[in-house]
Sequence to fold (339 residues):
Amino acid sequence: MNASSFEINQAARILESGGLVAFPTETVYGLGADAENPAAVAKIYAAKGRPANHPVIVHLAPGADVGYWSHELPEAARQLIAAFWPGPLTLIVKRASHIPAAVSGGQDTIGLRCPSHPVAQALLNEFKQGKGGVAAPSANKFGHVSPTTADHVREEFGIAPNAQLACILDGGQSEVGIESTIVDLTRMATHGPVLLRPGHISREQIAGVIGRVPNTPDAAAPRASGTLDAHYAPRTALALVNAEELAGIAERLLKAGRRIAVMCRVTQPVSQAVAHIRMPLEEAGYAHDLYAALRAMDVAGADIILAEAPPDEDIWQGVNDRLRRAAFDSAGALERLMK
Ligand code: TXA
Ligand code: MG
Fold:
């Protein structure tokens, strides 16, 4: 199932010549381009339908020279890199002035991450002999659910090679399943570390390494598209409901003649639902399955997806964040459909 070294080498040549390649990471699949080629980066924005002022994460090979990308690495960055790279953690630091601003949406900062997925690492080692950076947002259309399999990428962009996407590398299902944790370290003196996006690496784990708990974003914190309220959203309305209320709400919707899809966790499946999925009890398993479950529920032809809310605990922060954003656009839908 994993891409062969022949395919990986071919993909590296495509990136070097300014083309787009989709590749697996342990979090979600990325839509990659040469981070130092503004024309190639522009193709990412066009393919995603994403505004050009949204910065993109730059992926680096294991052992890459981080100092090439940023001349101002705070001590906390070094500590977090030593603790969590390769892995699902993105650091926002000051961008070295020779790195084109296109990759940062014009900001003077840069997001850096070293993925642990073996196919991503092989691609990054092959691309510019391991000295390049691959700019890559998640390989989905802007605002839609991130892809965790190569098939999801095909659903988003069609079969490669096509006009937008030259190649899709397969690496199986992404292990983590939700996007990387993002920590902003660009304003340490005034604001301290700031958690821009929660993920599998938790606030407490970060605090354990740098000795201080990252703050929540203030109004002046860097823009991040993954932090827009409505993001990661299925097209079907989605309501996040407490476990104790799920059965009652489902019953009212069914009585009103609605078609429902249900993502339960500790509650019993609802037998009259047009689709239901029992989600894993543990956070890691839940995150791993989340986006595939949302995609499956989205094509079930339901009027609304009912998602049982997981516990409100630190470890569930990343998952709860994605579920809240998936539900954001559907505010009011539940009340309307119960009538
Ligand atoms: O797990 C991940 O992070 C995946 C895989 C492919 O690595 N990538 C991903 O990319 O989720 P994307 O573009 O969908 O989300 C990246 C987030 C966005 O919210 C973006 O605004 C933020 O990172 N970001 C990137 N560079 C930034 C910067 N210089 N300053 C502030 N935010 C930045
Ligand atoms: Mg994304």
Notes: Residues 137-138, 146, 226 surround magnesium ion (ligand 2) (CB under 6 Å). The first helix runs from residue 5 to 16.
